[in-house]
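Re: your question from the hallway

Yes, I did run it. Sequences:
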Amino acid sequence: MPKRTDIQHVMVIGSGPIVIGQACEFDYSGTQACRVLRSEGLRVSLVNSNPATIMTDPEFADATYVEPLTPEFVEQVIAAEQPDALLATLGGQTALNIAVALHERGVLEKYGVELIGADIDAIGRGEDRQQFKDIVRQVGGEVPDSAVCHSLDEVLSTVERLHYPVVIRPSYTMGGAGSGMAHDEESLRRLAGAGLAASPVHEVLVEESVLGWKEYELELMRDRGDNVVVVCSIENIDPMGVHTGDSVTVAPALTLTDREYQRMRDLGIDVLRAVGVDTGGCNIQFAVHPQTGRLVVIEMNPRVSRSSALASKATGFPIAKIAARLAIGYTLDEIRNDITGETPASFEPALDYVVVKAPRFAFEKFPGADAELTTTMKSVGEAMSLGRNFTEALGKALRSLETKAASFWTVPDPAGATKESTVEALKTPHDGRLYTVERALRLGASVEEVSEASGIDPWFVDQIASLVELRTELLDAPALTAQLLRKAKRAGLSDRQVAALRPELAGEDGVRTLRHRLGIRPVFKTVDTCAAEFAASTPYHYSSYDEENEVAPQPDRPKVLILGSGPNRIGQGIEFDYSCVHAAMTLRDAGYETVMVNCNPETVSTDYDTSDRLYFEPLTAEDVLEVVHAERASGTVAGVICSLGGQTPLGLAQRLKDAGVPILGTQPEAIHLAEERGAFGRLLTEAGLPAPAHGTATSYTEARAIAERIGYPVLVRPSYVLGGRGMEIVYDDGTLGDYIGRATEVSPEHPVLVDRFLEDAIEIDVDALYDGTELYLGGVMEHIEEAGIHSGDSACALPPITLGVEDIARVRRSTEAIAAAVGVRGLINMQYALKDEVLYVLEANPRASRTVPFVSKATAVSLAKSAARIALGATIAQLRSDGLLPQTGDGGVLPENAATAVKEAVLPFHRFRTTEGHGVDTILGPEMKSTGEVMGVDDSFGTAFAKSQAAAYGSLPTSGRLFVSVANRDKRALIFPVKRLADLGFEVLATAGTAHVLRRHGVDTKIVRKFSEGPDNCVERILSGDVDLVINTPFGSPGNSGPRLDGYEIRTAAVSAGIPCLTTVQAAAACVQGIEALLAGDVGVRPLQEMHAALARQWGGRS
Amino acid sequence: MTSASDGLPSKQNGRALLVLEDGRSFVGESYGAEGETFGEAVFNTGMTGYQETLTDPSYYGQVVVQTAPHIGNTGINDEDPESRQIWVAGYVVRDPARRPSNWRSVRTLDEELVRQGIVGISGIDTRALTRHLRERGAMRVGISTVELDPVALRERVLAAPSMVGADLAGSVTTPQSYVVPAIGERRFTVAALDLGIKSMTPHRMAQRGIETHVLPLSSTVDDILAVAPDGVFLANGPGDPSTADHAVELTRAVLDRRIPLFGICFGNQVLGRALGFGTYKLRYGHRGINQPVADRSTGKVEITAHNHGFAVDAPLDRVSETPYGKAEVSHVCLNDDVVEGLRCLDVPAFSVQYHPEAAAGPHDAGYLFDRFAELMGGDSK
Ligand SMILES: Nc1ncnc2c1ncn2[C@@H]1O[C@H](COP(=O)(O)OP(=O)(O)O)[C@@H](O)[C@H]1O
Ligand SMILES: Nc1ncnc2c1ncn2[C@@H]1O[C@H](COP(=O)(O)OP(=O)(O)O)[C@@H](O)[C@H]1O
Ligand SMILES: [Mg+2]
Ligand SMILES: [Mg+2]
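Structure:
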């Protein structure tokens, strides 16, 4: 069936900010969809509040709305755009829920918009857990016994029947939000309560537990000719009970006979047809009983999902791209498989390699959070790897994660680990459980014991056992022979692992030297969708210690390697991928062959369409050097770009250069200059730029001496960190002692940095380009929250709201001085703190930053593209005349009437619980905790801020009840904003102290009890839902003193009640402006393209 | 064609050598039985179903290269074999499982290969070998654990018989006939000519109320008529269809009598020849369970299990005149437009080049057995 002729204009909905369970895989799918639809000659309009996405780049849609993903705003966009159809199956759960909401409000009908991909009924049948179970039974499948409940009583009576443990799962949620395993009534009440709240339809499913069964997923596609293909099967190594997003998974499934697999396939196809997803991708999860083979269906996602992105990268079959074509009427057999170029997409990929995906967690950022893995997804990112056997892929996946341990034997065992304690530990799923498996085996546990305790299939355990045997072989060998080394490499051991077992080889570099001398190098194979049955035209490669290399010669164009940023983690996410993708786009235009190296399956950078060549490899020195070697054999390598992918590639620059690899752009020496505190401090003094008084300590005594000199409060942190890892504000010797005590690796190699902490300073974030002579100020962002809250967690405004021309001029001078002194060639990111008219330099990052995409969208300039060109020798002057940069002026001084853009961070607190099941504290500090961001943009700051809040948390309240409880030092500052809210009609509640001050200033205030003051207190009021807005700033010094605890209870209550909770004076003030803007009404929507055109006009001379 | 040594497990995994007739060689480890074997090197891209593959008689005389890297993970069970024995001439895998894991497994694959004297090789770059066969075409190969000199082994490879012109069905067909009863009430009786039939095939028919009489290839028309069949089935099988003269004769006799006829794989080629079409050898064949085939009557795509190195040479663009009236190409492979099915318009006969019984493989083509039943039920074809 050919393309439908009745659709000319499709609206695509993105998935909004990066949150746990919904990350940049939806930028990948959305970007593909936009590309495809436009190449089909359709008009595409797009709504997505996430500025860090590639899909929201103006060139990917005809009209791009960076607006809140709420039904209200999306309806406005529909009204403005009048699309024929809405494609909501590529924007994750967010897009799907919006589509449902729009339907229920009659919006789709009103504007005659057709939902393509999956219609409302199909979405209902797939997403509503009860309807779905009925369907599975109708087609002859089995499901775990269960009942849908709408109240706690229903839940309790259901458990009478099902018996503990039971699984609680809310309808219409994603990433397992609010779900969990209840083992007793106490945990049941807690989970069911949270679940009912988490579900938009206040509905939870109470379900028989199939804990410990083997878990599988199938990725299917269907077209309107009712042709169905299974793109990929995925097996979870962690059995049922651990969310697939948190499980280590493999593709294809490795422990199923054909009969079992085909049963699963048949059932999956029947379910898909019965649910009635007319076109596109869908994901179905199954559980298989290990001893009986009994097969049950767990759930289906009637849309492209996280696993679809994984499956696409794992097989080379681009699910989202094809789903988009199917949605507009094509059938699978009409679509080419662009990897073979000859065969159609109506086939099932065959793999001749093994894919392993491993999750990346961030528990260390949420003190007190329960690190047990459950049915609620908690990982913040993932790495994928390919190998010609399981252990090779596993080894690569583990070192791709960039955790402390880089696969087995790279860190010491936990002290006192015995066989018994280790086997015991296997019973609770946890981050890095495969390390525990290896240790258990090494300490003498049998494959059966380990499999029994962990529920992990013996086949996988045995694979790890083979590594334990290999380890002994490596340890015992009198000398490391070529044959043994080759065996180790085939099994996927890194040079670092081998070095750990053979000290005489003088470390990783020693092993590499030996390996190269023995001529033991990996070859590069190709992901071709068909196990080599047909020739592949797409150079999508992975390394393996096998025999035949498939990298084609390409002598014509010079090659540029772009190193990506690896798995998403807090502090390093999609923003860096954005910059890498831009580099690939612009360098291809500039005549280079672009070669991407990355291991994150969620990203656009690992789409084989993004660069000329893709190497799906871990970002370690060893793996990157082998890629360089292969590419040098293929042609001329101009160099490697390390400054766009964040800290990961930056950290590799020096070692690559030492190995003789040309680094493009800012050189390792310069990087060191900016990152090594001592050197940077000297640089600042020479440049005459003020920095907070500071020192570097390698022991507690040293730290204390420094603190005495510069005075408390001080800010302490380990050197070389991103996202403020391990950073704390310390008010006295005692806490300083604790910190040093906790920061285990303090040593001459790993000193602690001690800075004077600047209280109540305005923080300023700057992104700039420097070419050696000229500085281009990309953008100056003024933080809403004061310094002390990590730049990644605080909201900020561009253009800055309160900074004067003189301040900007100072920022420009300082930034230029630093860029020049450091020797930046490309991007530099600066953070300043403005206090008492002094502009302190907080830090300089000689690389692309988290804010590059935000700045690029706010100012209509692609900083990353320019940076890549500068890295290859272009000057800012040239870029200005090429039109990549404005001919005159820069982002430092935007035109008078330029729109204001506000970035707001999105935080994952609601995902985590303490072991007692309590929420974790939501207080912000110098350590970054946010997973993503949104952008609100409009003419006035107030409206832009309101939009940013709507996008991040749902709209700000314009009436209702306000609860205030603030630290003494903040009381005066808060009188005005609270009074204003009272005047706007808000009813004000406050704790005694705060109420007292407010009343004295004529704000009529009701007193409510503190949490510590017994029943009917503020916390209960918040939880019961009769408070609409909370302002609470942290009390006094840290530690668990009473008021501090009150604050904690208040903030966690606000999070569970899902209402805005402002923790700083500045945020409160901004919020007032936002609410005023909302009350003033007429908050409209506007496409980026229009805003950028306006900017260009005012700016002069830009296309 | 396997000269296996006494079949003791070769657990020390000695070296093994694989040499292709064009001289390319691979050194790996002995897998399965020790000894030496020769055959036609072909690759199979299925990611599941090695047990079914090994026991598929159509692989007789062939050395099968598995592109899936891990083989043997689910061991061997007693339900899944497709015939009484392993038929492949040799087996090539990359990473054999050290330990099987599946609730139905009773033995390891390695043990089974040793037990049945199947010589194999593991640990070689199977992808490199596959790409070589893709580019140069299927060719003769030798695997040896005794002769480790490539030159010497190649001599022997070149001396081995080639697949072109090979008449192999006779060697795999059942010595005497047997009956597979219908499940439930019997609706039809079918005479199945065993050219290398797989056990799933009569089972699929039984599920549809068909009683299947499996007859040796040597059977005569009278033997066939003796079971008073409602329909005749031509099975899959090994070898070059151009040698299958006897089967072609029987088929003509069946067509003359307008007895409903259904053929698969080799049977498709036999029907093709009976209708006067030629057959030819594909460069490297179709062997896998992910092959997209279009049913030209409905336009629907089915994902199918293939195992064929030869194909029927019939025109795609028109209906052909044959000694039995009009006939057309009913199915085509979307990867390469190879003829995957024939339908007679004037006599009740049709066939497909692939495996609707699908063991291993997806069940998309099961409807063809229904079509056969309809044909026997006298419904319009
Ligand atoms: N009945 C059950 N018993 C045990 N574990 C379960 C059960 N149902 C789901 N799980 C586990 O919870 C995880 C999340 O459940 P799922 O239905 O997939 O929700 P989500 O929509 O978050 O993916 C699954 O990956 C599985 O490991
Ligand atoms: N001397 C200081 N006074 C007040 N706040 C500071 C100071 N130094 C750092 N901060 C705060 O800590 C945050 C993280 O510090 P930064 O040096 O930017 O580390 P990172 O490398 O993690 O970005 C900054 O965004 C700022 O809000
Ligand atoms: Mg799920
Ligand atoms: Mg910073």
